[in-house]
Write a structure and sequence with these properties.
The protein is mainly α. The protein has helices spanning 18-27, 29-44, 51-63, 72-79; strands at residues 2-3, 12-13. The longest helix has 16 residues, at 29-44. One of its GO terms (cellular component) is membrane.
Length: 96
C-alpha cells in the first residue's frame, strides 16, 4: 500500500510490489494485530481522518479482488470499530 496523494486525506493505492506484501499480510494474523495498533495510534495522534480510506482500500482488495480475503474478518471485527465518532466508512463507495 502506498499513499495515493500525499497531500490528500489518506487515499491509498497499490504499490509496485503489492502482491508480495499482500501475501505476507494475508498469511499472518500477527500482522493483523499490527494494523489494529496502527489504526488505534492514528486516532491517538489526531489522524482519525486517515482511517476510512485505509479500511475502504483493504475491503476493496479483499471483497472485489480477493487479494486480502484473510484480512476481512479482522477488518469487520476490529478495524472498523476503531473509526471514531464523526467518521464514516461509507461502504457504498467501495468500487472497482
Amino acid at each position: 500500500m502506498v499513499a495515493y496523494n500525499k497531500c490528500s486525506l489518506g487515499e491509498v493505492e497499490r504499490s509496485d510490489c503489492y502482491l508480495e506484501r499482500f501475501a505476507a499480510l494475508n498469511t499472518s494474523s500477527h500482522n493483523h494485530r499490527r494494523i489494529t495498533r496502527i489504526l488505534k495510534s492514528l486516532g491517538e495522534l489526531d489522524h482519525e481522518y486517515l482511517k476510512p480510506d485505509l479500511l475502504r482500500f483493504v475491503l476493496r482488495e479483499g471483497i472485489l479482488y480477493g487479494h486480502l480475503e484473510n484480512t476481512l474478518d479482522s477488518c469487520m471485527k476490529y478495524w472498523v470499530e476503531t473509526i471514531g465518532e464523526g467518521q464514516s466508512l461509507a461502504l457504498s463507495t467501495i468500487t472497482c
